Amino acid sequence: MGMVTTVGLVLHPRRDSKEAIDVIVEWARARKVTVLGLPDEVGRIDCSAEAVGPDALVERADLVVSLGGDGTMLRTMRLLAGRSTPVLGVNLGRLGFLAEIDVAELQPALSAIDNHDFTVEPRMAVRASLPDGRRVTAFNDIALVRIPGDRLAAVAISVEGDPFVRYSSDAVIVATSTGSTAYNFSAGGPIVSPRVEGFLVVPAAAHSTFNRALVLSADEHVALELLPSSGELAVEVDGAVHGRLSSGDRVTVTAVRGAGHVVRLGTTTFYERARRKLRVTGSAEVD
Fold first, then answer.
1. How far apart are CA 224 and CA 199, in angstroms?
2. Is 115 assigned to a binding site?
């Protein structure tokens, strides 16, 4: 008997996913596999997927297929955070870091997964406790970002309760290894292998003498406190605004090991994807 009995779908809000869904539905029909989708997503596409709420999809699916790009993959992983359900990413546009295949490869990929012929790449998340009591989880990054027209982000960083540095910058980013190729990279932070269980604290456009990134263990926690000189800051979770902070507010961030599980079929490596996506080249001096 195959591994897959129920497939869940998460769709990009705008890209055309009809071709991919048709492939999945046809593959599932031939194997008596149930296909689930979120009501507001499959409702706009003529398909036979069963519309269920997020909780039911998370509970029932033993494989979730993300159709879109890295943003859709991040949303899918947040939906499943803390569960062992594998996520297969399918590109519907630009090359990404998390999606594994294109639509043309979808049918053989589903069969390979059904036959247990795949590996799972665990992905760490970071989780923050906000001053209003909410907890947010990100697979790329949690960033405290200066609001245009307001003062700089002035943030004190403490690790395991020990004060370490005060940043004055446009933003302070707490990034996972997954997120090292996102906002962290644009702020000058390092590219980190997804196998590394640790996270980064990085200032963006720092206006202070110390402008280096910190690399922390997944066992450590970091506190970010807004200093009296700080402007109001937006809290961004994987790029989406989840609230605002004022001077005196404090956010504590911890790592969550194995919060997501990404399907890998051995077709490409992280370094191949990074070279292509980031257009990494060597120095002209060595060519």
1. 14
2. no
